[in-house]
Amino acid sequence: MRILDTKNFSVPGYKAWGIHCGIKKTDKKDLAIIYSDREAAVAGVFTKNRVKAASILLDMARVRSGKGQAIIANSGCANACTGKQGLTDARATAEIAARELGIKPEAVYVASTGVIGEFLPMSKMATGISTAVGLLSTFGWEQAAEAIMTTDLYPKISIVQEEIGGKTVTIAGIAKGSGMIHPNMATMLCFIVTNANISGPMLKKSLLASTESSFNNITVDGDMSTNDLILCMANGAALNKRPVAGGKDSKKFQVCLDTVARSLAKQVVKDGEGATKFVEIEVRNARSPVEAKRAAMTVAKSSLVKTALFGEDANWGRIMAALGYSGVEMDEARTDIFIGKSKLVEKGLGQGKHADREATLALKQREVQIIIDLHKGKASATVWTCDMSCEYVKINAAYRS
Amino acid sequence: MRILDTKNFSVPGYKAWGIHCGIKKTDKKDLAIIYSDREAAVAGVFTKNRVKAASILLDMARVRSGKGQAIIANSGCANACTGKQGLTDARATAEIAARELGIKPEAVYVASTGVIGEFLPMSKMATGISTAVGLLSTFGWEQAAEAIMTTDLYPKISIVQEEIGGKTVTIAGIAKGSGMIHPNMATMLCFIVTNANISGPMLKKSLLASTESSFNNITVDGDMSTNDLILCMANGAALNKRPVAGGKDSKKFQVCLDTVARSLAKQVVKDGEGATKFVEIEVRNARSPVEAKRAAMTVAKSSLVKTALFGEDANWGRIMAALGYSGVEMDEARTDIFIGKSKLVEKGLGQGKHADREATLALKQREVQIIIDLHKGKASATVWTCDMSCEYVKINAAYRS
Fold first, then answer.
1. CA B383 to chain centroid
2. Which one of B301, B331, B332 makes the best mutation probe of the A interface by having the most chain A beta carbons within 10 Å?
3. Which residue of B345, B390, B399 is in closest CB contact with A390?
4. Has B187 been annotated as catalytic?
5. Cβ distance B286 to B380 under 8 Å?
6. Which of B157, B200, B174 has the alpha carbon at shortest distance from B43?
7. Which helix (H) or strand (E) holds A20?
8. Is residue A232 packed enough to be buried (19+ CB in 10 Å), middle (13-18) or exposed (0-12)?
């Protein structure tokens, strides 16, 4: 597997673009299109929030066919909590795009991100879609990645190549994140495309596995969105021999998809709203994988841990307190905590000023690793999060204005 | 029942005081004593965090006797995650106080709040306890309430009187809160005393009921502390006839205790770290009381809802999203949301600019009421929280320094 540069890349058989059509009050891009020149296998992962955006409801119905050819995504308006009108607008968006692209409406998936409770400006959408279709380009991925951003500071792109079934297969993805990032909901939006020739069921299974080890291991603020969505298209343009389940090629494909999904998930956390640090939290020797992940996530979600990380303060007591209320089997007197290379806590006790100073130095870095050893079993889990800064509060206090 | 002024009050049979003994780096008070001139019935509610401070472990053992006579509380050091040394220090604190007061060590309860993972400075504690015992005063409650503060901006006190069993009974409480405030953990520290003559079992039952309708309905930041504790003493100095279970007097006592506990709980939320607003969230017509509370608490805990409240932004989509991931049975298309008197959402849909403007005006007040009607059943619940401000992040980024 080769990890490619994200500048000016292309994926055989696909075009993409992004423009400003007027949904956002600023002049930033707010409409993205992804198009496959032939019908592709499509798999999706959708928010588990009971309140689902119109786009999610539409896509959940469409993905049952396992097929599709285009994605229209807008930022600036979530088209969530918009009732029947919202569903009508989502359907109309797909119809307009289908007409412009000359394909069936059922082959078009839609995605929205932005303010909840507002209606899509449909005449702007119609003009925008027509313009964007005219501009579709093999090298339009950066434009598309920009057009799905909301409070994101930079576009998130990942691309890898691998030899599968005798051909070179490319897998590329774009994502947006920033706020309302929490496991079991994909991230806000993520689109992955590949020219691999792969069956629909295998694509679905691979995508679920990749999601579990990537987007479901991150948290920014513990809030689960109404619009989260991962869509993955495989159009077969590589003309490779189809990987068979359990075979070498299917494993290679899984590794590629995992790599792209994990890279995008980490980029989402690094660009978390107001984030100044990327934090990896690993829990070792928990009783079960579920408990390991729950312990890690509880620490990752704690506002007190996150503000201490922002303050570069090795306040391990807050980590211990979070473990204590995580509901996971743990024993303070067995627990070790490392920050960076510093063993800050051994068997539940602080290791003194030297360890504290070393941990504080590690906390001054842009990337921080925290390891928690529960000494209770053999299971481990790793999650990624960011710190919580004043900027997070400022961004979210003013989001709609 | 009469609600009394919190200035210069006394509770017959009790003395209290608070001093600075040198645990805090500043010259602020950090040691409080509460003393009953005779043995009292004692009941307690303790943090459910698996990681428990030494003081909690000691008090949990002592409260089994249902009796006690004094409380020593320090701020500035939590004496949590301090292993065997921590337990030795907690026990020694009680012994020093017992010697100075001339009572049994088992009659002394201890409480600590502050930084986790540091040891109590025992020589300062010894000198401090001796000084504080010498200063004990009938009118020392404000000093005691100040001495248990950490990042609190003001002391929290509540006092009521009622005729019970033919005598005037006083119930007074002091509390501290601020950060790490979350249900199922009492608040950080709360001490309630009464001169009522009441049985130990009835005191315990009443305290549990009061906690459920007060401290277990508040959240500041969703973090559960290792040190949370409510202790309630009843020394019988009023010489009233003992209330019998289910009788008029036991109900009167419950109302008094509820009033004191709820007043203190609300004061804790109003003084939440960095809080600029006191927010009451009521969920109506949920399927069950458990679901009503869960829905209300999920909204109350959401960082995105709390930052929107800070920004005085009627961003009801975030409330709907939180309801959607609360795990509670709800249907977007049935849900109404009110902020203040403004019906912002009816049957899942925003009610337009006028409703938005009215809600925004309500959000500009210091106290905000949010009502959510799920139209799913008949159960309701009310919880109290505060907004999340930049100040919250600043306080917690710098807490140890």
1. 13
2. B332
3. B390
4. yes
5. yes
6. B200
7. none
8. buried
State how far residue B76 is from chain A, nearest Cα, in angstroms: 14
Contacts of B401 in chain A (CB under 8 A): 311, 313
Phi, psi of B167, rounded to the nearest 5 degrees: -130, 160
* Amino acid code (one letter) for B32: A
pTM for this predicted structure:
0.80
Dig out the tokens for A209 from the structure: 């596995």
CB proximity under 8 Å: B 301-340 to A: 302-304, 307-308, 310-311, 313, 315-318, 320-325, 330, 332-333
Alpha-carbon torsion, ordered B262, B268, B272, B275, to 10 deg: 60
Contact A19, A124 (CB under 8 A): no
How many Cβ pairs within 8 Å bridge chains A and B? Answer: 211
- Nearest by CB: A221 against B303, B316, B401: B303
pLDDT digits (tens, 9 = 90+) for A42-54: 999 888 888 889 9
Q: Tokens 């007027």 correspond to what residue?
A: A22
Tokens of B76: 């500035």
pLDDT tens profile A47-88 = 888 888 999 999 999 999 999 999 999 999 989 889 999 999
Residue pLDDT, tens place only, B69-103: 999 999 999 898 899 999 999 999 999 999 999 99
Q: Inter-chain contact B50–A179, Cβ cutoff 8 Å? A: no
pLDDT of residue B303: 84
Most confident of A148-152, A228-232, A322-326, B55-59: B55-59
Q: Residues 189 to 248 of B: which have CB under 8 A from any A CB?
A: 221-226
Q: Using CB atoms, which residue from A49, A78, A115 is nearest to B324?
A: A49
Identify whether the C-beta of residue A188 lies closer than 8 Å to the C-beta of residue A113. yes
Q: Which of B56, B87, B396 to mutate to test the interface with A (most CBs of A within 10 A)?
A: B396
- CATH numbers and ranges of domains, chain B: 2-268 (3.60.70.12), 278-397 (3.10.20.340)
Would you state the pLDDT for residue B222? 56
> What pLDDT digit, counting tens, does each position of A214-263 carry?
888 876 655 566 777 889 999 999 999 999 999 999 999 999 999 999 99
B187, B194, B219, B335: the active-site residue: B187
Nearest one of B154, B78, B71, B88 to B116, comparing CA atoms: B78
> Three-state DSSP class for A30?
coil
Are the CB atoms for A25 and A51 separated by under 8 Å?
Answer: no
Is the CB of residue B179 less than 8 Å away from at least one CB of chain A? yes
Q: What is the ipTM of this complex?
A: 0.75
Q: Which two tokens stand for residue B118?
A: 């540091």
Gap between the Cα atoms of B9 and A198, Å rounded: 78
The predicted structure's pLDDT at residue B165: 93
Question: Residue B165: left (phi > 0), alpha (psi -120 to 50), or beta?
Answer: left
DSSP string, B132-183: HHHH-BTT-HHHHHHHT-SS-SS-EEEEEEEEETTEEEEEEEEEE-SSS--S
Q: What is the pLDDT of residues B159-184, one digit of tens each?
A: 999 999 999 999 999 998 865 544 33
**Residue among A288, A315, A287 nearest A299 (CA):** A315
Query: Which residues in chain B are contacts of A223 at CB distance < 8 A?
Result: 302-304, 318, 321-322, 325
